[in-house]
Amino acid sequence: MVLLSRSFVGGVFFAGLSLVVGQQKTAPPVPKSADARFLLDAVRANYLEVAYASWVKDHGSNPDLKGYAAKIVDDRTDFGDRLREFAARYKLSVGGTQDDKSEAEYRRLQTLDPGVLDQAYLQDVSKIAEKELTAYQHEASTGTDPEVKQWAYAMLRPLQEGLQKALDAQKLMDGASSE
Fold first, then answer.
1. Domain CATH for 128
2. Domain carrying residue 100
3. pLDDT at position 9, please?
4. What is the Cα–Cα distance from 34 to 129, expressed in whole angstroms?
5. Three-class HEC string of the chain
6. What is the pTM of this model?
7. Do 57 and 51 contact (CB within 8 A), yes or no?
8. Which pLDDT value is given to residue 146?
9. Is residue 170 part of a domain?
């Protein structure tokens, strides 16, 4: 999944976003359908990340992983608030819900024993981060709304860093379980 530090997000991405927003005098038009879908999918992915991380924080077995999950909850909750605020500028309804597939996966995680949960979470969080990064790359290169496209582009680096952190955490857990 994506790990974003508040200082990085606040210092790089949202500083850049405020410049774009600061130049805007009126409400932006509703983005074209693909841009709107990207924003809605981004909100859903973020919501899923927070739900997963919160469950692992409370029910995982590894203290280091529980700390990692707690950081994701904090980082992604802050990120999600800003993401929903950005999407709301386009008058998109972005309630905190998941799609059926994500809901089913989350329910599956809730049935796992704590040790199995730790590994399943790390695998899932890496897959979600890869999918999210791909979606942002696609929007940054093919989006039609300039503000949404710039926003997606600005998020690429933190998303890449978040994916790397998820992969690193998975390697650490794999190493700890083989000892």
1. 1.20.1260.10
2. 6-178
3. 32
4. 20
5. CCCCCHHHHHHHHHHHHHHHHHHCCCCCCCCCHHHHHHHHHHHHHHHHHHHHHHHHHHHCCCHHHHHHHHHHHHHHHHHHHHHHHHHHCCCCCCCCCCCHHHHHHHHHHHCCCHHHHHHHHHHHHHHHHHHHHHHHHHHHHHCCCHHHHHHHHHHHHHHHHHHHHHHHHHHHHHHHHHC
6. 0.73
7. no
8. 93
9. yes
The number of distinct structural domains making up the chain is 1
Structure-block tokens of residue 142: 């093919």
| Residue 73, pLDDT score | 92
Radius of gyration of the chain, Cα coordinates, nearest whole angstrom: 17
Q: Residues near 108 by Cβ (< 8 Å), separated by ≥ 6? A: none
Alpha-carbon distance of 133 to 162, in angstroms, equals 9
Query: For residues 135 and 41, is the Cβ–Cβ distance under 8 A?
Result: yes
Higher pLDDT, 92 or 30: 92
pLDDT, tens only, 136-169: 999 999 999 999 999 999 989 988 988 998 888 8
Here the tokens at position 90 are: 């386009």
